[in-house]
Amino acid sequence: MKLSPVFLTDLGIVSSLGRGKQAVLEALTREARTGAVARSDFLIDGTPAYVGAVPGELPQLPPELAGYDSRNAGLLILALEEIRASLDLALTRHGPARIGVVLGTSTSGIAEGERAFFAALKTGVLPAGFDMRRQELGSPAEIAARYLGLEGPAFTVSTACSSSAQAIADGRRMIRAGLVDAVLAGGVDSLCKLTVNGFRALSALSQGLCNPFSRNRDGTMIGEGAAVFLMEREEAEVALLGSGATCDAYSMTAPDPEAKGVIAAMRSALEDAELAPEDIDFIELHGTGTEQNDAMESHAVRAVFGDTVPCSSSKGRVGHTLGAAGAIGAAHCWLVASGLNAAGALPPHIWDGEPEEGLLNHSLVNAGMRLAPSARRRFLCNALAFGGNNVSLIIGRP
User: So what's the pLDDT on residue 32?
Assistant: First the structure.
């Protein structure tokens, strides 16, 4: 039995590319390194590291939610406020008990926990007023539900870098199961010392700018941001057409070089969407810029799609936003599929142009490339995580 589609009614997004849909789309479709900056306040030895940081001040939570206040919460609120009007309409239409929340994260507000820890090392006690809720993994969904007055099921997914892609797939499942009539789904992650130093300890942090799918790639750079969708049954311009998820458990940190789990996830998403590989017009690659990930994902994409589908990775500009990466990648697909992109521009792949045999060099999007007039605007987005947690989403016009 063919299941009815679930639509992505509206999108709120903030990343190092900008604040809001229009700003992010304009930066995404330009050939520029917008967003990446060198910072010396993350690595413990003071060495500068490139990160995808969101500039400017962030909103604070209202006094009744002060125990949750963090940079992570500020990014989330910024994204929520962009779709506040759509959320208010959904509340009127469905009621607060029929709207759920599913968000993904991998760090939550751990940066605030780091500062409290270092203060305690000096003084012997945690700072007055420090609240553990700021760094708990479950907090993002609690924050969103309480901030908006939503009363449906609310939970946070944390499967490393596939967290928010899984949250979006879970949101559709909740609607189809009849548990709710609408879902706020997406993800948020913020910069902190833990992740930047952790990736460096794994020899997975780039020495300079992230350079996905280049022969000169040497690692990823960490970013931050938030992307949240309002998902409903009511027809909208863009839908979640399919999803596929696998867990190959090949290694805690290394991808399976044969990419069996990733191939299975992409094929499952196509089957779920009732589409063939040739129906996909663009692929938002996970594309971290590490030697192993780019080789594995190239193998997987070529096994399913060959070298014909235009592809790009945004990690060279926004960085790897970890638990938010899947939602931000899905958001990029939503923006390219939407009427905001009337010209049909595709996001150029930002790298040094130095190819390596066996990688996806022939299908990477160049500056100025556009969708064909006959394109149906149906895109695939990969989110691939530690532990072999793989999620592929198909987003586009129904």
Answer: 79
- Binned at pLDDT 50, 70 and 90, residue 1 comes out as low
| Radius of gyration for the chain, computed over Cα atoms and rounded to the nearest angstrom | 20
Q: Which residues share a beta bridge with 7? A: 232, 239
Q: Is 320 a catalytic residue?
A: yes
**This prediction's pTM:** 0.97
Active-site hit among 161, 192, 210, 333: 161
**Pair type for strands 154-157 and 222-223:** unpaired
On the question of pLDDT at 165 being above 70, the answer is yes
Nearest to 347 by CA among 313, 302, 376, 324: 313
What are the b/e assignments for 226-244, b being 16+ CB within 10 Å? bbbbbbbeeebbbbbbbbb
Domain parsing of the chain, residue ranges: 6-396
Catalytic residue among 192, 210, 286, 299: 286
CA distance 398 to 393: 14
The CATH code belonging to domain 6-396 is 3.40.47.10
Q: How far apart are the first and last CA of the chain?
A: 17
What is the rounded average pLDDT of the residues 14-28?
97
Residue 161 annotated among the catalytic residues of the structure: yes
